[in-house]
């Protein structure tokens, strides 16, 4: 087994040694607790590098985490990410214990819509299917026909074979997908509080200040930002783009930890770093992952009456 001090090599490009020394005790404790409790840590791409590279067993974007959650054979899953991700892991693993280290790790998109809103949308648009971004509560998923992530939104829209869909709750994701498909996409007015901050003017300034820079944007960014970027995709798609195209200079218009996590693999690539922190993702730390495993908290539960329909919407997405 790798010791905490040898794990430091994985993150030494982005974590100062002095800071690492404050992490070592928790890293060692978490590795030991995972073994003793038959637990795995699933971490989203926006988790800090010491979590992402040193204690996580499975990492990825929302789609990869959902897909890989199905394959987990441990008894306990600790979700290093936000609450909707932990709920999705629980939906797909009803018999397992799913823990989230801080129950307050929410999401502005998940907070932007309720099942009652969906009922009103269905009344206003009879017969139009509801495609729900995974960044929503289980209750909202349960009121939907199918889920999507930023990694498969266009495929999900086109899989339904209908001329018109409702895509909730992210207005910008819906409008960005609408530009790529013949299907009419009706949007809701939710926004990601991290990605809505990027502007087209930011993109122009970056091109002026960093000649030759390749600009990748997350599809939760406003459509004029995506239009001026070189490429848009989910966090996993951005990571794959860097791995395959190897731009000399790149900017990832997304959450701050993303560049750190990708940059450790590419010392030859210059990562220009305007970024915005997600306060919800940042509620997760080594210290509360350790406490989650030590004290079995906070356990994610889902009302069984909601879980059946919510699971159906997620599984329908996974089958696309
Ligand atoms: P993806 O990792 O699926 O691109 O999602 C980004 C995000 O904002 C998750 O909260
Ligand atoms: Fe929600 Fe945006 Fe934070 Fe992702 S980055 S959890 S979409 S607020």
Structure, explained:
45% of the residues lie in helices and 15% in strands. It is of the alpha/beta class. The strands form 3 sheets. It has a 4-stranded parallel beta sheet, sandwiched between helices. Strand 3 (76-80), helix 5 (83-92) and strand 4 form a beta-alpha-beta unit. Helix 2 runs parallel beside helix 14 and helix 4 runs parallel beside helix 5 (83-92). 1,3-dihydroxyacetonephosphate is lined by residues 45, 61-63, 135, 149-151, 192, 220, 234-235.
Structure, briefly:
The chain has 320 residues and is α/β, with parallel strands linked by helices. Helices cover 45% and strands 15% of the residues.
Describe the protein's topology.
Elements: H1 4-11, H2 17-37, E1 39-44, H3 49-52, E2 58-60, H4 62-71, E3 76-80, H5 83-92, E4 97-99, H6 115-124, E5 130-133, H7 138-142, E6 146-148, H8 153-159, E7 164-168, H9 171-178, E8 184-187, H10 200-209, E9 214-217, H11 223-228, E10 231-232, H12 235-245, E11 249-253, H13 256-263, E12 270-272, H14 286-295, H15 304-318
Parallel strand pairs: 1-2, 1-3, 3-4, 5-6, 5-7, 7-8, 9-10, 9-11, 11-12
1,3-dihydroxyacetonephosphate binds near residues 61, 62, 63 and 234.
